[in-house]
Every structure is written in C-alpha cells, then in structure tokens.
Amino acid sequence: MDDIAQSLLKRLVRRIPRQMLQPTLEKWGRLQKAQLESMDFTLSKYALTEKLLSICEENDWSTKHITELELLSYIIDNPNVGMWHAYQLLDPEDDAHTVELMQFKEQFKSHLTELIQNVSIKIKKHTDEAVWIRLAWGESFSQPNHFKPTYVVHYLQSPYVFMTSLKSKHRPLLDQALVLATRCQSIKDANLSGRKLIAIRDLLMKQYEQVFPSKFPRHIPENNENARNPLIEQEQSALSSNRLQMACEAFGGGKLPEIQSAVYRLKTKFRGHAKNMAQRKEPFKCVVKFSSTNLLESLRSCASSGIASTPVTPLLSSIPLKGRNYFVITDNGPGSSQTLHQQK
C-alpha cells in the first residue's frame, strides 16, 4: 500500500463508529473469513487500524480498494456528509430512457477523462437504484486529491442529480459529462439543498404523501396531538379542526421530508409616503432564512396550532408544491403584488 491508501484507511477507520466497524468490513466483502475472525473488535481503534493495515498489505490492496470501502460500505449508508445540492437534467433525447448502468458508466468516464486527465472515478449502484459516483480531482501536474472527494448521486431514468463537496471550477466539467452520459441537452440548479440527502430526494422526486391543492375542502384524519386534546376540543374545537385542515392541505397529512432550511431572497421597491424613500431607484434587498431540524413539520405544526396564521401563505406552501427551498421574491411591476420568482 502506498502512503495515500494508508492515510485514507486510517481516516476512514477513525470516522466509522466502533459498533459499525465489523458490519462495514463484512459489507465490503474483500476480507476473507479467517482474516475477519482474526480481528478483535474489542481492541482500541489504533490496534484495529494497525491490524487492518497489515491485512491490506498482505493482499496488496491500493487506493482503489480503500475508496471502494469508503463509498460502498460507509458513505452510501451515511449520506449526511455535507451540504447536498439538487440539479435537474433538461431536454432528454428520444432514447434517453434506454440508458442503462453500463452505458452510463462508460460514457461518463469517457467524457470526463477527456475534459480533465487527472481525475479518479469510482461508480457504484446502490440497492435503491441510485448510482453513486466518487470523484477525486487533480490539477494539471498533480495527482487526484482523495482527501477532498466530490460525491454525486443520480437515479437512472430520472432527471435529478444530487452533488456535494463540488468546487465551482469543477462544476462545468461535471455538468458536461453528466449531460452527455444521460443524453440530455443541459442541466440546471433545482434551487433545493440540504444536509439530508434522503429528505431533499424525497421532496424533489415526490416520494412522500403529496399535496394536491383544491378549492373544495376535504376531510383529513386528525393525527395531531393538539387536535385530540380534550381541553382544546372543548374550548375551540371548530377553530382547531379548521386550522389542522388548512395546515394539512398546505403541507400534507403524513410524514414529511426532513428539510432543514428555506431561504427567501427579497428584491422589492419601497411603498409608502416617505418621499426620500419613494425616490430610491434601487430595490430593497434582504434575505430571510427559516431553519429547523424538520422545517416542513414545524411549519405544519405552527399553522395547525395557531402560532402561524391560516390559510398558509404561498411563500411557505411553495416548498412542498414546487420541491424547492430557495426562492427569489420580486415585483411583477408598478403597483402589483410580489411574486415568487424561479431563477433559471
């Protein structure tokens, strides 16, 4: 093993919780049964690392094998490694739906290595049909940096891609390789990001109880603890039921994706009687950010409990409806109301 492989292995073992180390190595599948049984997982992390290094030396494993362990047996099961950003592939060709895993892998590697020579690419397909890509970028005269990799997740036959730890200078290269490998024409920012990959995936791909706006009220089962509280029912049962109804119509009645933030960027002109302010030509700008461990659940709870007014403003209900958590609020024109503007 070279120094890079040894350093990667040491760092990886430090990151994996002790109770998960044995299952992770078993899932990796490269250790023989006798080698796995020779490891005493009650020992310190240092002793386990040294033992694992000696086994890797015996098998002559390289950086390639260690990055496989990192991606397949650790990162895929622990996807909350950073800030994930969602993107959408646009204008697929007629045969785009026929692209299979092997075609995608060959095309992606071929196109990316044509654009940049020093790049390490590892691609694995997960059990949920997600294609995971690990990229280590190098410079013109330097080898790929395996300590700061980029991770990409793409669901074949879907237009969505999720990326984390990607530098801006590498974005055009990755975009072009993805577009060509998926047989699409372009890719755009979906204006959705978060630290929980599964949450932003579920929100964008509608893998949860969806919201269907309607002008006609519909019955939604009361699954809120406050709505079942006898004291609240006695004092204001009608108001409580109505608030719950409108909250569920805005966000859904079931379990919601654990989105942790939403950002609203405001650009508007002053509307008032102060002359010095009304003469200002430049728009007023500000940024409002909502944060929570589960933002959609918090907003639904605020609306159903009466903390927030109902019916729910489109500024908030647009999060599940549009599958985004970044918005720009601008003016339609002189004397008009504000509108949510989707950036292209």
Automatic annotation (TrEMBL):
CC per GO annotation: chromosome, centromeric region; nucleoplasm
Keywords noted in UniProt: Centromere, Chromosome, Nucleus
Coarse class of the protein's main subcellular location: nucleus
GO biological process entries: CENP-A containing chromatin assembly; chromosome segregation
Domain of life: Eukaryota
Protein's cellular compartments: Chromosome, Centromere; Nucleus
InterPro entries named among the record's database cross-references: CENP-NAC/CAD_complex (IPR052011), Chl4/mis15/CENP-N (IPR007902)
Record family assignment: Belongs to the CENP-N/CHL4 family.
Name of this chain's protein: Centromere protein N
